[in-house]
Design a protein that fits this description.
alpha+beta; two-stranded antiparallel ribbon; 3 helices; 23% helix; elongated
Length: 142
């Protein structure tokens, strides 16, 4: 939260496990012929080191979202939901499933709950009246 509660800044961060140089080596430790001299091992380790040095564990610049109201400095809650991509027609769906084989495509939705900095006073509080039944008849001949 920036600019006195009027801007929310959101950035994507790489999970630490993606920047572990030995991650690929551990995953392939039981593969015959995979060792320190393997091109795959060396290129993976080089790439991880490069990403770590260039991006400081954040990918891209943060996105600043101007809020329509002032919020408190703390985020109440946040979550990411992954939804499967859908298609407009069954034919497109079959084509996409064939193309992806066993893989599935997803898109992510980030939901962030913020708390308004505005605290209603007695003058600004809303009132709600609920009428359950009325003695006034709608069919009155008056």
């Amino acid at each position: 939260i920036k600019k006195g509660g009027m801007v929310l800044s959101v950035a994507t961060q790489l999970p630490a496990k993606f920047l572990e140089v030995n991650r690929n080596a551990r995953a392939n430790q039981n593969v015959a012929g995979y060792n320190d001299l393997t091109a795959e091992r060396n290129s993976f380790d080089t790439l991880v080191t490069l990403i770590d040095s260039l991006y400081d564990k954040v990918v891209g610049d943060p996105q600043d979202i101007v809020l329509p109201f002032k919020v408190e400095d703390e985020i109440v809650s946040w979550k990411v939901s992954y939804e499967t991509n859908s298609t407009r027609s069954e034919e497109e769906g079959q084509s996409l499933r064939r193309l992806l084989d066993r893989n599935q495509q997803f898109f992510a939705i980030l939901k962030i709950e913020l708390k308004s900095a505005f605290k209603p006073t007695a003058k600004h509080r809303a009132a709600i009246n609920v009428v359950v039944d009325s003695d006034v008849s709608e069919d009155s001949d008056d």
